[in-house]
Amino acid sequence: MRAGRVQKPARELFRDATFPASESSLFFNLSTPLAQFREEITWRRPQEICTTPQLFPDNPWEGQVKQGLLGDCWFLCACAALQKSRHLLDQVFPPGQPSWSDQTYRGLFICRIWQFGRWEEVTIDDRLPCLAGRLCFSRCQREDVFWLPLLEKVYAKVHGSYEHLWAGQVADALVDLTGGLAERWNLKGPAGSSRQQDRPTGGQEHRTCWQMLRLKDRCLISCSVLSPRAGARVMGEFHAFIVSDLQELQSRAGQGILLLRILNPWGRQCWQGLWREGGEGWSQLESTDEARLLSQLQDGEFWVEEGEFLREFDEVTISYPVTEAGHLQSLYTERTLCHARALPGAWVKGQSAGGCRNNSCFPSNPKFWLHLSEPSEVCVAVLQRPQRRTEARARPLLGHGAAPASLSGKDYQAVGLHIWKVEKRRVSLPRVLSAPPVAGTVCHAYDREVHLRCELSPGRYLAVPSTFLKGVSAQFLLRVFSTGKMSLSRAERPAAQGTDPRAALPADQVETMQLRGCWKAGWTAGGSRNFASYPCNPCLPFSVPEGAGPRCVRITLQQHCRLGDSQLHPIGFHVFQGQLSLLRS
């Protein structure tokens, strides 16, 4: 009897135990409309949803975002930024990962999300939530393209569940996907509101739209409706859109017209204004222009004129361009902010939580030295680390995903930032901080990140981030981006007279410096002092202030490695006193 062919066992596909295909990954406390689908949602891999799944399409439009049942339009709008930059897409989706048709496919994907100063790798399996066999959350215009639902699952894992993504700020998601900065331009609110820019008036509104025209090819631009008005009620409230394009045209009468093409992540037409298909606005243009612009519309897109845009939308969010080298570019001057520094900090109750400038204990807030070597355009940002989520965080939120500041601030303190110029490092804090700062935020804002942009002359500056309320604890990351060379370090108050610095080193610290270096084979990897190549190792000079009495210095050498990397090297360091030229000889 002839034996039959032995069938190869099916490959065992990866199952993510830390973010399982279960209710714990879908829901936080069943407080959103998703709860009604609790019994109907199933999990399927892409090859169980369609016959030929693919990660990215050949036609970029086929990979355009489309929102499902989840109220995460804010995140989906930010995802569109990846379609404008191959560099950013490769940063978030490392290339070369095996796909469904590859022999090495194992049912897992890896993405990178920027979190509090570093890119974190996140691994997921490719089981996705479905209703009646179709994706029930985000999807692409072509439903056999899966980069977007996979990235949405990664972001849900980072936040704890899909339900945690219900309502948020486009700016926060842009920072997480680019590692850069994003600004919110307020089109309606009163001056001093929590947005990054005061309410535009008159010509300022006009300049906002023309600035968007200049930046459209380099930045992701999103716009939001925070409350419905007559003529736009079907657009919802707390809903975010993508500005796909801007076009400058001449009317039949020879007047300039600026049109904006808007994409609704819902993927359906919702605009009933003058420039809808068949609307009266098109009579102002030549028929050839009308036909050309209408032919560009895809599912969910519509054209709107500048005046309608400023009237019907409340806010614009725009990301800073990121170069291939990973540097930010200014939204205002297009100069490259090629120098970047970041330091963590914390407001600690009873120690460094001094509150706003109205409080006498304001000088106790964390302080940072910023030294500029040349005239520079500078962006300084304070990024809060989210506090532990509580049941109150997931109370029912109205709308479709774009949260106003009053809702998005539940996890954060109201934060501000002020900068003073000083002539020397040893200063009288009360005298300096009682003077007007050279730059500062308009108000304290309940945003995850607040930042300010300014033109600064060479010199030394003191930056003081603060919470509005005193005595509240929170952690933050201070980030500085500059066109010119600069250094950033912590400034701590010196110990009281009579204190033994050897007994209490932290209290006597005057300055904390952070220096970075690397060992490169064949260049700066000289090995230990037993080798003749030892002088090739990196040399990091530092100085200790002169003066009477002992100087206590604490030096820590930290080895950087990727998450999960166990390949650490034995390391050490030595300190030499002398001239820099001698140390390098």
Automatic annotation (TrEMBL):
It comes from Heterocephalus glaber (Naked mole rat). Gene3D superfamilies: 2.60.120.380, Cysteine proteinases. Signal peptide: none annotated. Keywords: Hydrolase, Protease, Thiol protease. Belongs to the peptidase C2 family. It comes from the Eukaryota. This is Calpain-10 isoform X5. The keyword Protease applies. The gene is Capn10. GO terms for cellular component: cytoplasm.
